[in-house]
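Journal club prep — side note

Before the paper discussion, L.F. wants everyone to see what a predicted structure for a comparable chain looks like in token form. Sequence:
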Amino acid sequence: MVAEQGKFITVEGQDGAGKSTNIEVIEAVLQQHNIEYVHTREPGGTELGEQLRALLLNDSDAMIGDTAELLIIFAARAQHLEEVIKPALAAGKWVLCDRFTDATYAYQGGGRALDIKTISALETLVQGDLRPDLTVLLDVPVSVGEERADNRGEPDRFEQQQQSFKQRVRACYLARAKEEPARFRIVDASLVLAQVQAQVEQVLVDYIQCVRPPL
């Protein structure tokens, strides 16, 4: 018997939006519903991906051109899909991913102002027709995200960008959510943590009830 294809859930948002904390909420909901899942992240998720992540995020002195950055991200994604995401989905497991291609549109398309058509072509090349089933977008004003990120310690290459870059990232995320309302759920991440977590929990419960209605 062939396993039913798993669901692909992604969590997106600017730096400081609280992705890590709220992913824990999603994991708890999946566990409560006895859903087998794989938790992964981008860039990363594989040995190669983590090496590329370290290059992209941690080496602030690295002279990485914008196009090279884009290609590195999609190289990591190609490995991630073949090694982790596709096998898990094919086995009937759900995949919970901290960022995916929407982040590329937001950071490299919005922030870096790279050609959206180029990103779309790479998306098709690497992913085929695979897209997330549900994307939870944690939205927060840039000033709030910066304050939270500053409290976490040493900023990475993207956190070091100018506020105008971050504003473009946020605007692109919101534009994509508007374009695909069936896939996106926007969560106001500027509220106190308990309120944000309650929103995230409700989003997941509602989604599970939709795709797995009671017998």
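L.F.'s comment for the group: Residues 66 and 112 are 7 Å apart (CA to CA). Keep this in mind when we get to the figures.
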